[in-house]
């Protein structure tokens, strides 16, 4: 069982995690910090604006990370609806952590390239 960064009451929250995602840990931590504390609709709108490049964060659009987080947010919404909660009234708590490391199998100069792997935890909390 995976440990979460936040352990709220299971009756008032929904948990979702993405493991082994091929996105940058550093950039995903920036985006997770930006959407944490927002309500569901506002956070979803911000992520969709990043994907469509209408809005930026520090001069970057973070399209790859935002599309991955949108998929996780949609999964959390489905989990909340299954539990009988209203996701529009919930608050997002997201965190990114460094995942396992693996190296690409290449020859000569290209060998031993590290790949970026990130684990993301997302929790929707009822107000």
Task: Give an overview in words.
With 127 residues, the chain is an alpha+beta fold. It has a single domain (22-126), classed as Ribosomal Protein L22, Chain A, CATH 3.90.470. 35% of the residues lie in helices and 21% in strands. The protein has 3 helices and 3 strands; from the N terminus they run E-H-H-H-E-E. It has helices at residues 25-35, 40-51, 63-83; strands at 13-21, 90-98, 118-126. A 3-stranded antiparallel β-sheet has the order 1-3-2. Helix 2 runs antiparallel to helix 3 (63-83). The mean pLDDT is 92.
Instruction: Write down the Rg.
Output: 16 Å
Question: From the structure provided, what is the oligomeric state, counting identical versus distinct chains?
Answer: single chain
CATH architecture: Alpha-Beta Complex
CATH topology: Ribosomal Protein L22, Chain A
Report the strand count.
3
Number of domains: 1
Poorly predicted runs: none
The N- and C-terminal alpha carbons lie at a distance of 26 Å
């Amino acid at each position: 069982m995976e440990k979460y960064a936040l352990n709220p009451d299971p009756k008032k929250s929904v948990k979702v995690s993405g493991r082994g995602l091929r996105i940058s840990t550093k950039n995903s931590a920036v985006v997770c910090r930006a959407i944490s504390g927002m309500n569901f609709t506002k956070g979803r709108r911000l992520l969709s604006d990043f994907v469509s490049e209408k809005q930026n964060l520090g001069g970057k659009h973070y399209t790859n990370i935002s599309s991955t987080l949108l998929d996780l947010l949609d999964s959390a919404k489905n989990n909340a609806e299954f539990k009988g909660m209203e996701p529009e009234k919930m608050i997002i708590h997201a965190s990114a952590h460094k995942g396992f490391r693996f190296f690409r199998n290449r020859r000569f100069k290209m060998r031993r390239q590290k790949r970026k792997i990130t684990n993301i935890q997302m929790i929707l909390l009822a107000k």
